[in-house]
Specification:
Four Helix Bundle (Hemerythrin (Met), subunit A), Immunoglobulin-like
């Protein structure tokens, strides 16, 4: 026999089951909830597919010209000073000497870099002229040319900064004002006539400057305006040679360089050549050296020389230079 209390529980459960069935049927007939939603577990929605990656923009049609961004140089007005345009600046002797030393150092360094760049580009042209050029040689030579150009620009900037530092404030304002003047209209100023100057030297390979500006190593060819010019050639081991020249047409100038004199080798010694009218004993710095006539090698400097003969002694002090000969004659006789 079942417990009495179980009857109400069964009745409540049956009523709840009937109510749920009626609720589900009303939802199905209304079209709000599918039947599977009441019996199947709720699953999470699948992740959305990733958005498609946009294609790279197409390259523009036609050639594309890339140019380096120009870097302004605030010291560019002082290039005129490096070029030797010192007139009107009012430089005193000390400032002028300082500026000239800066200019000389700049021109020497700039010429070295320009020469290195020219030699590297000549190597490039030589390879490209061959039927089968070596790409590695071309790239290496081109890299050296670019490095030389960078070094030249760095030396130019350093030279401009140095000459600016050597000028006073009024002189700087004068340089800036001179650079700010508008250029003469090309319509009113005719273009100068040019001619080709070829410079050859013996031996070749000398540094060539024209009016103080480096143009390369000899043999070299450069186009210049007609008129008076100053050509100078310098090579290590040879004296600098130069000459004024009147350029009237395409010309070739030949310069013979003169070798430097050999350096003087200092031995630290000199010589005494001593004679007398009668035989005499000769002492140098108190040491007996022999009888006249006599030639003695001694160290450079001052020496005391004495001659004794015929009962008389005569003393003299002499100074001997490096490689020099001092001639002495004593009269020791009666």
């Amino acid at each position: 026999m079942r417990p009495v209390w179980l009857i109400p529980v069964i009745a409540v459960a049956a009523a709840a089951t009937v109510a749920l069935c009626l609720l589900a049927w009303s939802s199905i007939t209304a079209g709000d909830t599918p039947l599977t939603a009441l019996v199947a577990p709720v699953r999470p929605a699948p992740p959305a597919p990733p958005a498609p990656v946009a294609d790279e923009p197409p390259l523009p049609a036609g050639p594309v010209k890339l140019r380096p961004v120009p870097v302004p140089d605030p010291y560019e007005p002082y290039q005129s000073v490096l070029d030797g345009e010192l007139a009107g600046l009012g430089l005193d002797a000390a400032a002028s000497n300082k500026v000239m030393r800066i200019i000389a150092d700049y021109r020497r360094v700039a010429l070295e870099h320009q020469t290195a760049q020219s030699e590297a580009m000549a190597r490039v042209r030589d390879q490209l002229a061959r039927p089968d050029p070596d790409t590695n040689i071309v790239l290496a030579a081109h890299a050296r040319a670019l490095a030389a150009e960078t070094a030249y620009r760095r030396a130019t900037l350093a030279g401009r900064i140095d000459v600016r530092g050597a000028l006073t404030a009024p002189q700087r304002r004068l340089v800036d004002a001179r650079a700010a003047k508008p250029a003469t209209s090309p319509s009113t100023t005719p273009a100068p006539r040019l001619a080709t100057l070829r410079v050859q030297t013996t031996p070749p390979g000398a540094y060539i400057t024209v009016d103080g500006r480096p143009v390369g190593r000899s043999p070299v060819a450069v186009q210049l305006p007609l008129g008076a010019i100053d050509i100078r050639a310098s090579l290590r081991g040879y004296g600098m040679s130069g000459l004024p020249y009147q350029l009237k047409e395409d010309s070739t100038v030949k310069i013979n360089l003169v070798p430097d004199p050999p350096p003087v080798v200092k031995t630290g010694k000199g010589r005494l050549s001593i004679t007398s009218d009668v035989p005499a004993d000769i002492s140098v710095d108190g040491a007996l050296m022999g009888k006249t006539p006599i030639t003695i090698d001694v160290a450079t400097g001052r020496h005391s020389v004495s001659a004794s003969g015929g009962g008389d002694v005569e003393n003299r002090t002499v100074s001997v230079e490096d490689g020099g000969v001092v001639h002495l004659k004593f009269f020791a006789g009666p």
